[in-house]
Amino acid sequence: MNRKELDPENSPEEAFGKRLRTLRDQRGWTQDVLGQRMGYSGTHISAVETGRRPPTPHFAASADKAFGTGDEFDRQGRAVRNTGLLEGFPEYVPHEKRAVEIRLFELGIIPGLLQTPEYAAAITTGAVRRGSITEQQAEERLALLAGRRAALERDPAPLVFVVLDESCLRRVVGGPAVMQKQLAKILDFAELPSTVLQVAPYELGERRAFDLPVHLLTLADRTNLAYAESAQRGHLMRETVSVVAMLTAYHQLQAEALSQTASVAMIEELRKGTP
What pTM, to 2 d.p., does this model score? Predict the structure, then answer.
């Protein structure tokens, strides 16, 4: 039987699932047996172990009772529920780390994979000041982002296609000095042999394919995944008609966007206007 490998460093969900599986294996219990002891189905236990379903407070308390672990699972469950990451995003990250092709569309801010540490810190600091996340959650976001960027340096490197809405470039984050470094990083990114960078100018208007950020992944077996975000949550979609439709829309967006040469020229002009 194939078992999903769990890495506690990937997300709080995987850390919870890894601990649950480890204690279950130590006792020789199947998922069905643990489910009976906790009042859940074996399918539910499997979904929590693999990070496909978050642990509720009742689930965590039942796990502590079944294993005699005090409040260990209760504390881990709170870490899952109080994460500063958008719901659904931790499920996406492990797939991104092993994708052979990554396609991104972003508006408003530079996508995380292209952010400088200073730009990323400015974004998280702003979120802390607004009270939307805590200092600890901000540190969690930055640590995860650093790990995602490092994953791109693997060999062979994935092909990365990025389309930036013009708003990403014109919105000043962290002040002029931070933006200078950020725009320089984007230009460096565009020079890499495994990347394509394009800008979707304001002039596209209603011809712009997406109104929300989009992530599209192609895995080594040519499976396609899509991740899309709203203000409330993110959603990972697997090989479905919806994923194919989003991939088609992305190709249409690339055809409408500026070429990489024209995009680089726009960014260089913006740098000249940044003190």
Answer: 0.70
